[in-house]
Design goal:
Length: about 350
C-alpha cells in the first residue's frame, strides 16, 4: 500500500471515529490545516522532479478531496444526531388532560349587565359611562336635590377630605351623574343607559356599600309618559323571558323626576321562593318618571322645548330576582363555591334571538 493510500485510510478512519463536532474539527485541522498532514505533503511537491509531480500531484489532490468530503458528510451526520437529541430532550406535551368541568365562570352581575345592555340596545339605547368619584354638583345639585336632602348626609354618602375651598368630592351614590354629564355634553335627542358601580353607607342582606345600577335616559321634543311605560314593560318581559307579565305603576317621589313612579311586577311567594309572572302578589323592582324641568335647566337644556323620561334599577337586585340568589352580600365575597354554583359559562353571550340565559 502506498503512503498516500495509507494516509487516506488513517484520516478517513479518524473522521468516522469523531463523536462530536469538536473532535471532527480537530481531525480536519490535523489533516487540512496549515500544518496538517495533507498540507505538508502538498508543500513537498516543489522538491520533486516533474515526472514525480505528475504522479504525486493528482494523488494528493484526490486525497484532499476525499478527506474533505468525508469530513462534510460526518459533520452533517453529527448535526442531524445533535438535532434529534435536542428535539428528544426538549419535547413538550401540548395536550391537556380531560377536565371534569369548566373552571372559570361569568359572575351573575356581569351576566345580567350583558342581558340588560342587549335588551336596551335593541330599543336603540347606547351605553354611557362616567367617573366613580364625583362632585356635589353632578351628584346632587344638578339632580334637583336641596342642601338639606338626607342623601347628602355622611350616614348615606362616602365623602373625601375637604378641599381648601370647602368642597368635598364623593363616591357617586347613583349613576345619575352620567345622565347629567351626557345632557351637558351633547344636545337632544338623547337615548342612553348608564350602568356601573355605585357606593352608599349601607350593609345588610339586601344592601352593600358598593353595588351596581343601570339607569336610562331619553330626552327629545315628543317623549311622553306612555313611551316610558312601554319601554319598561318591554324590558321586563324580555329580561324575565315572560310573554304575559303583570305590571303596575305607583305614584312616588324623586327629586329629579316629576311625575315619579315606582314599578311593580306580578309575582308569588309560595313555598318561600319568588316566582315572577305568577300569583297575586307584587314586587317593586325600579323607580322612574319624567325628567324634572329643573334638571334640564341645570344642564342648559330648554325645558320649554325638551322633555324626557328616566329610570333606574339595581343590577344586583335583578340578578337576585331572576336567578334566585337570596343574599346580596355573597356577590362580593369571592367564594369559589358560590361562583361555581351561580356563575355562567364563559363565552355564552346573551342575545335576544338566541336567549339571554
Amino acid at each position: 500500500m502506498s503512503d498516500v493510500e495509507k494516509l487516506k485510510k488513517d484520516l478517513i478512519s479518524a473522521v468516522e471515529a469523531a463523536r462530536d463536532e469538536a473532535a471532527l474539527e480537530a481531525v480536519r485541522i490535523a489533516a487540512l490545516g496549515r500544518k496538517g498532514k495533507i498540507t505538508e505533503q502538498l508543500k513537498g511537491l516543489g522538491a520533486m522532479s516533474a515526472e514525480e509531480r505528475k504522479v504525486a500531484g493528482p494523488a494528493l489532490n484526490g486525497l484532499k478531496q476525499a478527506v474533505g468530503a468525508a469530513i462534510e458528510a460526518r459533520k452533517a451526520a453529527l448535526e442531524d444526531a445533535a438535532l434529534d437529541a435536542r428535539l428528544a430532550g426538549e419535547t413538550v406535551d401540548v395536550t391537556l388532560p380531560v377536565r371534569p368541568r369548566h373552571e372559570g365562570t361569568i359572575h351573575p352581575v356581569s351576566q345580567v349587565l350583558d342581558e340588560t345592555i342587549a335588551i336596551f340596545a335593541d330599543m336603540g339605547f347606547h351605553v354611557a359611562e362616567g367617573p366613580h368619584i364625583e362632585d356635589d354638583f353632578h351628584n346632587f345639585t344638578a339632580l334637583n336635590m336641596p342642601p338639606e336632602h338626607p342623601a347628602r348626609q355622611e350616614h348615606d354618602t362616602f365623602y373625601f377630605n375637604e378641599k381648601p375651598d370647602g368642597s368635598r368630592m364623593l363616591l357617586r351614590t347613583h349613576t345619575s351623574p352620567v345622565q347629567i354629564r351626557t345632557m351637558m355634553d351633547q344636545r337632544p335627542p338623547i337615548r342612553i343607559i348608564a350602568p356601573g358601580r355605585t357606593f352608599r353607607c349601607d350593609s345588610d342582606q339586601t344592601h352593600t356599600p358598593m353595588f351596581h345600577q343601570i339607569e336610562g335616559l331619553v330626552i327629545d321634543e315628543t317623549t311622553h309618559l306612555g313611551h316610558l311605560k312601554w319601554c319598561l314593560e318591554e324590558f321586563c318581559k324580555a329580561f324575565f323571558e315572560i310573554d304575559n307579565l303583570k305590571m303596575r305603576f305607583r305614584a312616588s317621589h324623586f327629586p329629579f323626576t316629576e311625575p315619579s313612579m315606582e314599578v311593580d311586577i306580578g309575582c308569588s311567594f309560595e313555598g318561600g321562593a319568588i316566582k315572577i309572572g305568577a300569583g297575586d302578589d307584587w314586587l317593586e323592582i325600579l323607580g322612574s318618571g319624567m325628567v324634572h324641568p329643573n334638571v334640564l335647566a341645570h344642564c342648559n337644556v330648554d325645558p320649554d322645548r325638551y322633555q324626557g323620561f328616566a329610570f333606574g334599577m339595581g343590577l344586583d337586585r335583578l340578578a337576585m330576582l331572576k336567578y334566585g340568589i337570596p343574599d346580596l352580600r355573597a356577590f362580593f365575597e369571592a367564594d369559589l363555591r358560590w361562583l361555581r354554583h351561580y356563575g355562567f359559562r364563559a363565552l355564552q353571550v346573551p342575545t335576544l334571538g338566541g336567549g339571554l340565559t
